[in-house]
Amino acid sequence: PSPTPAFPTWAVRYADSLGTQRGWSAAADLDEKVECVFRNGRLEIDMRKGGIFRCPGQRDELTDFALRLDVFLLDGHACAGIWFRRGVHEGGKDSSYVLTVCRKELVLGHHHANGDIAEFARFGIAEIGTGVRSVVGLVVRGSEIAVYFHDAFVGRHADSAFPGGRVALGIAVRRDLGAGSVGFGNIELRTP
Q1: Which of 33, 50, 79, 90 is the most buried (most CB within 10 A)?
Q2: How far is CA 97 from CA 12, 33, 51, 54, 151, in A?
Q3: Which of 116-134 are b and which e, b meaning 16 or more Cβ less than 10 Å from the residue's Cβ?
Q4: Dist. CA 69–CA 81, nearest whole Å
Q5: What is the pTM of this model?
Q6: Angle at 176 between CA 48 and CA 28, to 5 degrees
Q7: What is the DSSP string of 14-27?
Q8: Which of 85, 79, 30 is nearest to 58 (CA)?
Q9: C-alpha to C-alpha distance for 24 and 146, rounded to whole angstroms
Q10: What is the Cα–Cα distance from 139 to 156, expressed in whole angstroms?
Q11: Where are the beta strands (DSSP E) in 74-151?
């Protein structure tokens, strides 16, 4: 592979502004103190406790894909999460990769069936301002995972723990923060 691989120009499988309910759904979970709502022309997630939550969304089973979307850190503290190759792994239980989009870094991890997230790669980025639109890209080909920020290649990592599955969007709030808010817009998913 080239040192700075270009973002793939594969055929668009789906594109969604996330301004209204289509491929993703509004949801609320009182126990988790969280809601996924369509507001301000995007999908916003508000969580009033520490933890993680994924909004109900696309059910497509994917192996190789290129994903590009707008991410907003609406309170400047919580991280946005993009789960991928999510499915029945690890002894028949729900598990996946996750890319967390935080103020100063993009972090790849395994989200294990027991709920633990084991981070395995970190990529520094220019600081994301509160409420500012950031364009995040994720390209998965075989065991190679590449990340992009504002359409520029940031880095890649090889890992083959999870062979395929769904994409999900959500939030990750550190326990010491106790609350957070993120947003997503203009998702575009391409497949070879």
Answers
A1: 79
A2: 22, 24, 17, 13, 21
A3: eeeeebebebeebeeeeeb
A4: 12
A5: 0.95
A6: 20
A7: EEE-SSSSSSS--E
A8: 85
A9: 24
A10: 9
A11: 79-89, 93-101, 105-111, 117-124, 134-141, 144-149
What's the rounded Cα separation, in Å, for the pair 151 and 149? 5
Whether 186 and 41 have beta carbons less than 8 Å apart is answered as no
Nearest to 152 by CA among 68, 72, 81: 68
* One-letter identity of residue 102: C
d(CA 120, CA 147): 14
Q: Measuring CA to CA, how many Å separate 109 from each of 45, 90, 122, 161?
A: 21, 15, 9, 11
pLDDT digits over 144-157, tens only?
A: 999 999 999 999 99
d(CA 142, CA 159): 9
99-138 tens-digit pLDDT: 999 999 999 999 999 989 999 999 999 999 999 999 999 9
Amino acid at 86: R
In angstroms, the Cα distances linking 118 to 102, 109, 129, 160 are 16, 5, 26, 14
